[in-house]
Amino acid sequence: MFENLTERLEKALSGFKDRGKLSAEDIKKGLREIRLALLEADVNYKVVKDFLQRVENRALSSEVLESLTPFQQMVKIVYDELVETLGGKASGLNLTGKPSVILLAGLQGSGKTTTAAKLAKYLKKKGHNPLLCSTDIYRPAAIDQLRILSEKIELPFVSATPQEKALEIAERALKIAKDSGRDVLIVDTAGRLHIDEALMEELKAIKDFLKPQEVLLVADAMMGQDAVNVAQTFQERVGLTGIILTKVEGDARGGAAFSIKEVTGCPIKFLGIGEKLDALEVFHPERLASRILG
Ligand code: GDP
User: Fold this and answer.
1) What is the CA radius of gyration of the chain?
2) Helix axis angle, 24-40 to 45-59, nearest 10°
3) What residues pair up with 132 in beta bridges, in sequence order?
4) Phi, psi (5° rounding) for residue 281?
């Protein structure tokens, strides 16, 4: 995960290692290296610019310039600002509803259906009793996929009948969740190959009806800045409460992970780190920043 970025940042920062006092010029040179490392990792250019501005403001303070251990100070500043860029504190799920509704949206192939099951499994382990449902009436195979995954994790699933509309399934699922005392309802929605007007309207209608506590976009980290653009569009059109980035274990660069919060204003809540149903991690900005900086 993010091996390239880790390597490049380490190299950029190593210029400060074993140095006595630093000049402003030394710092600026180091910052140029960090800038290149982030751009090569496919981080959004504006995010890179803001990040470097914050690092530079702090690094050019007398504290660092006059320090006898400038390397440690630089690492600390870069760490702090990375955490900031990644979203600051970990933001958990809002589960205050009765039941709490989690609506999942995203492009086809992003890992939405798998993530619905992963999330259900995670919540079950935490003592919740989720109910799953899929409103992807356009792809019966997707509905079937979630039904099979629900069986695997031994959780109930609301089946769709062929004549039902997506909104009707959502309405029925909410009623079943209430009547059967389920505390979380996870609703998978239709996948799209690209942003599609009609499906966006349908998603909005489901959201307006369910009034979910969480609207999570499932986005494929391997898509880099395209994933960020998709998240931005869903945020503008439907409104999101968070993002789940998938396939992160295969992403050596990290461009989506490092841009998506700053660009969209939505926090990353979970990382998908594999195909198995327990390959889901709560996202902690501090832990990721530590991992990146070694
Ligand atoms: P959907 O079309 O968005 O519902 O996507 P699926 O849930 O069907 O997932 C598409 C593919 O991505 C499947 O082969 C999943 O096993 C795979 N997948 C989902 N999440 C992850 C992940 O975090 N890591 C990896 N490597 N594969 C994933």
Assistant:
1) 21
2) 160
3) 157, 186
4) -120, 140
Task: Please give the sequence-ordered ranges of beta strands (E in DSSP) within 107-255, or none if there are none.
Answer: 130-134, 157-158, 184-188, 214-220, 242-246
Q: Is position 87 annotated in a ligand binding site?
A: no
Strand partners, 102: 186, 214
State which ligand 1 atom lies nearest to the alpha carbon of 273: 23
Mutual angle of helices 3-14 and 24-40, in 10-degree steps: 170
Q: Which atom of ligand 1 is nearest to the CA of 274?
A: 24
Ligand 1 neighbourhood includes 281 CB (under 6 angstroms): no
Q: How far apart are CA 257 and CA 76, in angstroms?
A: 20
Q: Give me 158's structure tokens.
A: 């609301």
- To the question of pTM greater than 0.90 for the whole model, the response is yes
In the reported structure, the alpha carbon of residue 24 is separated from the centroid of ligand 1 by a whole-number distance in angstroms of 47
pLDDT digits (tens, 9 = 90+) for 154-207: 999 998 887 899 999 999 999 999 999 999 999 999 987 777 888 899 999 999
Does the beta carbon of 264 lie inside 6 Å of ligand 1? Answer: no
- CB 104 near ligand 1, within 6 Å: no
Rounded to the nearest whole angstrom, what is the distance from the C-alpha of residue 273 to the centroid of ligand 1?
A: 10
- Measure the CA–CA gap between 194 and 247, rounded to whole angstroms: 19
pLDDT of residue 81: 95
- Quick count: other Cβ atoms within 10 Å of Cβ 232? 18
Tokens 């999101």 sit at which residue?
240
DSSP 107: B
CA 271 to chain centre: 6
| Torsion angles phi and psi, residue 86, rounded to 5 | -80, -5
CB-ligand 1 contact for 250 (6 Å cutoff): yes
